[in-house]
Amino acid sequence: MQVKVNGYKINYEIEGEGYPVVLLHGWLTDLETMRPIADGLKDHFKVYLIDLLGFGRSDLPKEPLNSNDFGDFLVELLKKLKIENPVLIGHSNGGRTIINAVGRKLVTAKKIVLLDSAGLVPKRSKKYYIKVGIAKAGKFVLNLMPNNKSVQKFTEKVRGRMGSSDYNASPEVLKESMKMILNEDATDLLPNIDAPTLLIWGGLDRDTPIDQGRKMEKLIPNAGLVEYPYGSHFAYLENIQNVNVVLNEFLKDLK
Fold this sequence. Notes:
Blueprint: E1 2-5, E2 8-15, E3 19-24, H1 35-41, E4 45-50, H2 67-80, E5 87-91, H3 93-103, E6 111-115, H4 126-144, H5 149-162, H6 165-168, H7 172-181, E7 197-202, H8 210-219, E8 223-228, H9 235-238, H10 240-250
Parallel strand pairs: 3-4, 3-5, 5-6, 6-7, 7-8
Antiparallel strand pairs: 1-2, 2-4
Helix pairs in contact: 1-10, 2-3, 4-5
């Protein structure tokens, strides 16, 4: 199914009947990565699986998006689908989107589940700053080189080695979006989230490390953290059977 949101075609699916639950996937993925959660909830809830703007079978944005843009998108999406006070479940950038919309008091949620959520600027190691310094110096040198095909090919190869896999796999408009949102910190929004919030995290997550989950637990007034010690950034998928038990327990009063 599709719905128009701010002029863009947004792909979504609905499974089950009951209290509304909205699932938001992470960066460079699509609604299929959230389907195992939908499968665990659809017997008791009306589950909305969304391809976020720029991903899956939804349209690409015409301009780069920042965190507020994603939050505003969620507001308009819920209005279009006539969803009120839902349960919001988001992985990675989907979680960041929820934090933004709810933390800015644009969306009211009955309950929230954040899965290895983005939203905080990570602590940087010395290795990171060395890499950034090398990249900046390299960019300066590359800009001095003549602009011909062989140099362009070499330039892209160098930049490819320096960039993250998520960044390199993105269309240009999403590359620019990623540059912006990775430097936007939602710490000040977390105390504004008054809905009961469940945090599910992988102890070995390298993209949004576990210390970020623990910080969110402290700053969100009514939050609890479930940690899977050997889980990665996709801990919820690696432990899906147990995660679905945890989710159904967390949401049992809404069945």
